[in-house]
Structures are given as C-alpha cells and as structure tokens.
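Mods, move this if it's the wrong board.
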Amino acid sequence: MSTLTPELAGMTSKNQFAGLKQLNVEIVPADLSGVRGHSPLPFSLQCLGGTWEGYLSGWQEDNVRLRLTGFPPIELSQIIEWEYRVSGQEHSLNTIQGIIKDIHVETGQTAWEGTTDILLHCSTSSVNGVLPNQGEGLVVYGHVKPEGSDSAPDFYPREREKKIKDESINPQKTGVHSSRLTIEKGNGQRISAYHDRPMEGNSIEGPVVVIAPGYGETKRDYLTLAYYFASNGFHVVRYDHTNHVGESDGLHYQICLSSMKDDFQTVTRYVRATWPHSAIIGVASSLASRVALKAEVECPSLSLLIMLMSIVNVERSAATVHQEDLFAGYGKGQCPDSANFLGFNVGNQFLGDAIAKQFVTLEHTLIDAASLTSPVILVSAEKDAWVAPDDLQAFRNALGRHLAQWIVVPNALHRLQENPKMARETYRQLIAQCHEHVAQNPSSEAIHNPNRLDLGRQNRREKIAQQQQAETDVGAGFWQDYLGHFQSVAKCRDYVKLLDHVFHALGPITPGQKILDAGCGNGNAGLYFLNGLASTIASGMPCLEESIQYVGIDVVPDALKRANEAMTAATTEWQHGKTALTPFVTKSWAQVDLGQPLPFPDNRFDRIVSNLVIGYVRDPGAALRELYRVLAPGGRMVISNLKPNGDFSGIYQSLVSNAALPQQREEARDLLNNYGKIRQAEKEGQFCFFVQT
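Not the wrong board. Structure tokens:
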C-alpha cells in the first residue's frame, strides 16, 4: 500500500497539440431501464483489499451516482463493475460496468470521517435485464476492475495520428551494458558517471543522451530512463552533480547552481570529444533543467533539450514551497550561514550565486529561452505544486518555434518517477520524439522496453555503492525530531485517506480482540481506530462484557507519551459526549524496536497494523516474520509503506496552505526538511521502500 494513490495513466498535449486520444475503454453494455427505479440501494465496493459500504443513490440518463462512507483509493477513468443480487443469494441478476467520471470527497464531523461521491458513466444496449421489486431485498456488489495491459494511452497528438509500435511485436529485448566513468572538471573535482550503451547493434555515431539529475537526486534515480534510451539504440551518460548528493566530489552543503551548470557543460564537452560525430540530447529535470537551459544558451552543444517538470521561476517556486521569499530576504541582508532549500540544507553561497548569475526570476528565464537555438521538448505535470501554469505558458511563448513538443502529464505531481507506469509511458514517448527529431529513424520502428533482469542487477550494484558512502544520520535523534514535527500530518486529507484504506483492509475489530499498532508514533492510527469505534457505539452497538485490547509500540518514548495523551483526551471527549469507550477498549504502551524480537508470545494479536514504518527497519523481512509470529490464526495484518520515489510536494503544499498558525507552517517546513533526509537515506540504501504488486 502506498501513501499516495497511484496517479492516472495518460497524457495530454498543450496549445498546438490539441490533446491525446481518450483512454480506450469499452464499457460492457447493459439495459439500464430495469434498474433506474431501484435506488437508493445498499452498495458494497471492493477495492485493493478493503470493502466500503454505501448506496447507489440515483440514475440520470446514462450516469449513476454512488455515495460511500470513507475514502476508497479510486481514480478517474477506472472502471467499476457491479452486480445486482437478492439479499442472501449469490446468483447475479444483472451486471453493469461504468467508468469513473467524477469523484467528490466531503469531510464529516471530524477529520477522520467523510464520504465519497462517485459519478459513473454507463453505456446502454437493448439487452434486457429483469430485476425484482425493491421490496424483495435488492443489494449491489461492486469492485474496481484491474487495469488491463491494453489500457495504455496513445501519447501522440491527434493531428498526426501516429502510433508507437509496441515492442511485444518484436519480443527480443536489447541488452544494456553499464560502465563507470570519471570526468574531471576544470577545478579538479571529479564527476562520477555511468555510460549505458546497447550491447547489440552498437554504433559509435548514434545519438548520445546526457542525463542531468534533478536537485536532490542522483544518477541512479534516472537508471530506468537511461535503460529505455540504451535499449533503443542510444548511448547514455548520466552523472551526479558535484557538491551535491551522490558519488561526485564535494559536499552537498556547498552546492550552487553555477556549479551544477559547470557540471553539465563539462559532461557535454566530454561527450562531444568522445563521440565527435554524434548528436547530443540533453535531459534535465526540475531545477536542473533551469541550469541546463542557461548552460546551453552560454555554450550551445545540444541537438535537442528535454526539460522534465522544469522549474522556470525559481523565486516563485521557492516561495511557494517555503511560504517566504528566501531570495528577497537575502537581498535585504538576511544571510544565515545555512538555509533549507527545497528540503536540503545548503550554505548561504547558494542564494547569492543564484541571484548573481541570474537563475532566479522568470524574466531571466524568458531571456534565456528567447536566446536558445536548440529545439526543446517540455514535459510538465498537471498538478505540480511547485510550478505555476502561467509561468510555464510564458516560458512556452518565449521558446516560440524552438518548442518541438509540450507534454502535460495529467494528475501527476512534480516527480515523474512517483508513478512508475506513467514514467515508463513518458519515456516511450520521449524516445519516439528523439527518433523523429534527432535519430531520423522511421516512425514505425518498435520501442523496446529494457530487460528487467539487466535493470535490476544494475540497480542493485548502484544501491550497494551508495550504501558504502552513506552520510545521512537517521538515528534515534532523527526520529525524535521527525515525529515531533509529524503531528499536523494527522489531519491531512491524503494521510486520512491512507488510514481509511488501512482500517477498511484490516476488517472489523470486535470486542474481545487484541490489536497491535506496531510503530504507533504519535498515535494517529489509534485515534482513527477510536473514532471508528465511537461511531459504531453511537449507532447502537450493544455493550459487551469483553473489551478490545489496544497495544501501541514504538521506539521513541516521547511519541508514546504523545500517543497516550492524545488517545486519553479523545476518550475523555467522547465520554462527555455520552459515548462511553472505557468498557469497550483498554490501552497499553511499550517502547519496542521493531528491528528486534518482539516481547510478545506467539499468536497474541487478532489484528496488527503497521503504518508507514516497515521501510525504515534495517531488516524488513525479519520484522515481518516477527509480526507474523505474534498474529493469531485467522487474524489479519495490514502493512503500509512509502513507495519508492514518492512525491510529497502535494501533501506539503496542502499542509502549508491549510496552516492557520505560524507554528503549523514551521512544522510543515521542518517536515519537508526531514523528508529530504528520508529521500537521501533511501538513495543510500538505509531505507527500503517497496512497490505495490
């Protein structure tokens, strides 16, 4: 399970590119005439391990509305299939499918409660369906259909009506060989890089792709993109910036944008000297794309520049993230020795260099764009919390005829890798564009996917290398500070939706059962549990003699103290509201390290929840075995975990925009700073985040 709902598949194009073809979905037709009069009807929706209850509340033409209690992890354009049954019978009377066209979430009386309204569009046909009268106990059971392999969107603009030929037509996959490079800068610093090349059909005159990682990222973050290029005949050189995270020389505290620009120019000079007859394609992400733009204006070397999720107005993006104008403060003489910039601590040289070398304002970006001579492919995210749409539009206008393509990823956040499927589709589109603009290969040539075994082996090699150079301190002191600044997140909608998913997957918890909250932190999962229990009691649950036994464990003593205080206060509040919880739940706490054997006997707990913890444990496998050992036969355990390359920009922006007090905004900034450390520790192999399978 992930902290963020997976983003939608599909892309759209801007301006001269009218858009992309809609998702190719064929709805199974059904006769709706026999069911229109049967609403509202009880409706149960199964999705990703949980079941949400609600009602099918009404029909309007070919649209149907659902209202569910809670926040199921659904997305636009997904398909829900449902069937009508008589209560107590398994035989289906009629089956209908609908595609999700709209989702509306309403918060309830507390931050933990709410409803989700879903609008579905259904096709009709002359198929007859006979349904009984509503008085005969008609109920509806639905589920979200898994996404099929044929649901990938067409990434080409409509006007051109081209198709990317799938590599499955030619199942043979091209192997890729990666070798280390060391490139020396003029100041003597060494740039650590990799050369990824195809093992077959290798041409020394083919295009070479230079990949500049984004701010706070390393060359390993772009391994998949590099292997897509190399599997399709391109040579790739990807590198780490100096004075930054990764394996190149220098400490990240010393980073400045001029240094990043020198790195890019040094690598492109190396490529030109090594492959003198090859076209060079530059790929740069986020803040690094602003750097690559200026580098290319000063020293043209590229046949094509690809700008991924580009920050074009550094001053505005930084102010959006930090809720203060860091550059204006610097100009007024506020020059601390260090500052947090987009989640990483940097020296005060960073702000001064960015201002002096004209990286900061949109005006200077537009001047550079107007001076550019190479074509540009711009990839942006529809829901990028860090980049304003009007800034991108102004940048597009300044590029003029040099804009070869503008691709907008719908519903995506700032980090493209946050959604691996969407990232892969984007890579395929970029390769097709490079074939057209640079390689001049036939447009019908198949796009090959990388060999997964090659990709996995190289990823492990580079992960081990980063582990050997781990510098990030994520010991007990870090977690003490992290949980101390994690309290505002508890009421963030994305986090509440995660807890809603966790407890719907966990299933009902009944009196007499024992629940373990492993890694309870500040007690957010326990508070959600108590709120649900209070709602159940208020709705008429009979008083039983046996109570539910809740046990919270964590390694941070202060977090356990906060959890106990919060749950005790919540219990007192509900008791004043005549919802007596005391006979129904008992609470106990223990300071326990999940990296060690648990101090509980076998088969102890009926329910176990571990929320956003397991990826931080040094040996997740051993921790899972211990949790399984203490799970009772027939019990249920739900584990949630951050996903690799997660993008917290949307959650952070939500926290900042909803902060009513200065200390809440400060807490959000501290959380962003700690998230930067978590990302770096993940890259160094200290943490292990898993993909959903």
